[in-house]
Design brief:
The complex is a heterodimer of chains A (673) and B (165). Chain A is built from 20 helices and ten strands. Chain A is of the alpha+beta class and 673 residues long. In chain A, β8 and β9 form a beta hairpin. The radius of gyration of chain A is 27 Å and the shape is globular. Chain B has 165 residues and is mainly alpha-helical. Chain B has a domain of 103 residues: Helicase, Ruva Protein, domain 3, CATH 1.10.8. In chain B, α1 runs antiparallel to α6. Classes of the chains: A alpha+beta (673), B mainly alpha (165). At the A-B interface, α10, α13, α14, α15 and β7 of A face α1, α2 and α6 of B.
Amino acid sequence: MPQLGNLALAIALILAVYSIVANIYGARRNLPDFVVSARHAVWAMCAMVTIAVVVLWTALLRSDFSLEYVAAYSSTTLPTVYKITSLWGGQQGSLLFWTWLLSIFTSIAAFQNRRRNPDIAPYALAVLAGVAIFFLLMLNFVTRPFELLATIPAEGSDLNPLLQNYWMAIHPPSLYTGYVSATVPFAFGAAALITGKLDDGWIRSTRRWAIFSWFFLTLGNMFGARWAYEVLGWGGYWAWDPVENAAFMPWLVMTAYLHSVMIQERKDMLKVWNLALIGLAFGLTLFGTFITRSGVISSVHSFTQSGLGPYFLSFLIVVTLAYTALLIFRSKDLRSPAEFESYLSREAAFLFNNLMLVGIAFAVFWGTIFPVLSEAVRGVKITVGPPFFNRVNGPLALGLVFLMGIGPLIAWRRTTTSNLVRSFAAPVAIGVATGIVAAAAGLRQWYVLTAFSLAAFVLGTVIVEFRRGMNARRHMVSEPRAKALVNLVAKNNRRYGGYIIHIGAIVAFVGIVGSSFFRTEVKKSVHVGESFTIGSYALRFQGLDETDTPHVESATARVQVLRADGREITVMTPAKLFYKRPQQPATKVAIRSRPFSDLYVVLAGIDDSGQTATFEVFLTPLVFWLWAGGVMMVLGTVVVMWPNVRERAAIATALSRSSTDARELAGAAPGGD
Amino acid sequence: MSSLAFLIAAIFVFLSPELKDVSRETFAAENPTNSEVSEGLTCQCGCGLTVANCNMPTCGFSVPMRREIDRMIGEGKTRAQIIAFYRHEYGEKVLSAPTTEGFNILAWTMPFIALALGGGLMVFAVGRWHSHQPSTPSDSNPGAASTTFDPELRRKLEKELEDRR
């Protein structure tokens, strides 16, 4: 079986090389057969990588410890679900998984473009195959997933216990999907630069890919935060760890891109900027992979450190240089007849929004690499941790939230002062009222007051926008309110789905602010039967239950949670785990999540008698809304991506118009009747 | 515009939220909690988290350090004193944020310098676009299409609409 995996990867590499050659040759010489053949090669490459994945999965499920990878990341006692997730639990497997996703997405892009974009699709597929070649070279020659062991161990080393969690089963695939799918719009952008077809065709063709990528980056970041919250046991969800930063940066840049392409679609402006943004987003996905695997910067997430860093860095440099050279080469063709009339316009709001998003991405990048710079310049290793990121990004986040409120209500081109006052009066009043109520409730931190006021202002703008659209529909087609609202969203799903995403982002922002500023914690050692308090809760330690399985030993505390009046609310069960195979302890936290606050209980220690336990308890207000906001963002994205008949008709018209133009340019325009 | 943006940024950076840190130094300095101190220190076990956040049950660095911090707080030491003690002991790498001295100033200022430069560039570009654009009547309808109509086409359109009424 391992030989089959190796063979499949070798053939996949050959097919990827062939696909590049045939695509470029066929497109340059106008030989469609070569382009078709290259497309088939892409599909065959995908089949080969799929075979390799199946071989590795089979080996993991069968605990075939003759394979070095299986022996290193699995064991006979590992639950089946984690045997499956072990595919991305280690270095070689995660690279194989990445390559698999890339080959699937390349195949889908090839299928979608079999009759579309004949000018740029072959080049885009060649770029995608080029990226695949890099990963296949790694898998074939540098970090082979099917390496055999000289001596077969009786048992495997098992998967890292931190990865034995259901969030870890879905967090890496989501993030990888987001990372890898960003390659498709990047490839089409690069193809537009190569061919000189620099209109917004490549953007329209890959819009759904960009949203798809953003969607999974959002999910990946959210799942990762939830994993940290539930598994790491420190009561928080985001530590500005380099690997978290590496996942956050492409998300920021993709968010900027999704806003700025609207300006290009609408006004034919910002061509260079959009191409630069998608290049940057792709580069940052490579940078993220480089950070995770190089060990250059230490991270709690670096489960797969290896010597791959120099290869990724070299690839990143080559891609960056080549793409920048293309941008410079095409700079004259990228100039567009710009129209910009006023700073009081939606395009200006989008430009500032882009500035903030890219500014935050730069601040995160800068903080992430500064330790390396410091060591290189001063020879002193320093740490750049949460205090830096919070302090630098805090004000930028406020600016961004403010712009989220401005964008939806301001007109394209320009807006008059009277219209501005009319549009913003209600949202500003809502924001100010929220600030006053918050201050009256005793909040004194200026950041919190500003954040809550701005959040209310943004929600106000979205409400005004929904109300305005709904009223317009009611006047036009005399619908009842609820039906008008549903139809409004259904018929303008891109716009109103975007607003739902804005609501989700604001709700998440409120959760982040609340949980960051008002968290309280208590650490207490108690005997069985003793109680202690946090906030309005009393917690009583009722005793320990111990269990022992071949895989893991656990000691679970029973903690009765009582109200101030003594009534029982629930019994929480935090635990300490001891994984036998990697001989590693772990923590299982107990969380009682409510809209106002989460009660988060960690069993921090147990004495030898089992009669005394130490608990770390956190009371975190509003953190519930971070996850709720994430869910809303996901729902909003689904609405945005929902197939829209009108949009498809518009694209079909645009495509038929562009093919007619192409025929006319080629002197083969059909005669009119 | 760039210098204005930079000024605003500079004000922001020194007045911004995790001012919890600054305020902790000034207001909570007399009676800090363990978390307030340990958030300012980085665990050296390789996890990359702060001492407050590292929750490895058997961490050989953060677990004893948190105990030691409790002891020092009990002795009446301030946050600044405790952090200075550990900085002396382990060097700058134990701090969870760069200092505001020498080369490290670059860490704090560069994001805002970049933002100011980006903002300046944007304002410059927009100014150029703006100066090339002939003025058209304002459109007060949000969401209105941005297309600039040829007056002749607009006249034709209005006539056709009129005919259809």
